[in-house]
Amino acid sequence: MAQLVEAVYKLCAHSGREDEVKWMWEEVGYTKMSWESLGIMQPQLWYAVFEKRPYCKYTRAPQVVIAVRGTKFTDINDLISDVRVIGQNLDGDKRYEHLQKVSDKVVEKYGCENVSITGHSLGAAFGILVGKVLAMNNRPVETFLFNPPFASLDIISNKSVRQVEKICKAMLLAIHSLVIEFDCTTRKRLILIRKEYLGEGQCEWTPRLFLNNGDLLSKGYINRYVSETADSRHYFMTGWLPIP
Length: 244
Hints:
Elements lengths: L1 H12 L9 H4 L3 E3 L14 E6 L11 E5 L7 H11 L7 H17 L4 E6 L1 H15 L5 E5 L6 H4 L4 H10 L7 E4 L5 H12 L9 E4 L7 H8 L6 E4 L8
Parallel strand pairs: 3-4, 4-5, 5-7
Antiparallel strand pairs: 1-2, 2-3, 6-7, 6-8
Helix pairs in contact: 4-5
């Protein structure tokens, strides 16, 4: 999942020239779906949809992965979305609405059990919202979220330039992220997560959070869900996440 997210970063850096970066998804047994097949007229550089090939060695990997990159600071649309994250108003974002429609199409075609959503930072924030809506419609998909921002008043209460710089730098931290995976034994934590994301919905949806303990924007998840839970499993991922 991390490599597919990184592939989207690379696609953006290479202005969509797939020949230069396709090795990244081919290496893990996937191919990038064409925009035409998704019914999209204009190519997008902030997300991509990948389909598993028959030779993929990861037998339990999902058939289709929707991967969303994080903030590119030269992209005004990304910065607007970041402001919406801080204001907890991302559900009104045009990119989110677009991604929701694409996800609906993909899930309708392949089935929710065969689709996964993954993203880093801002892309993880999109993934949370898309996954939430799908789950509330009884179509839960696996979600792998790398350093999703934990927007709170505590983070943005200090308006100084130094604090803003810290927030921006934190968004670039994504190396050897600490993985917090909630399994069936951590039932109380799952209930809290579901209530926050789904209200009182009964749908089984467990977002998997991959968190960097040094990341200011995602650290709140660790403080909230892990510090009080002795049953949570902690370990380090072997891959590397991209630095935008």
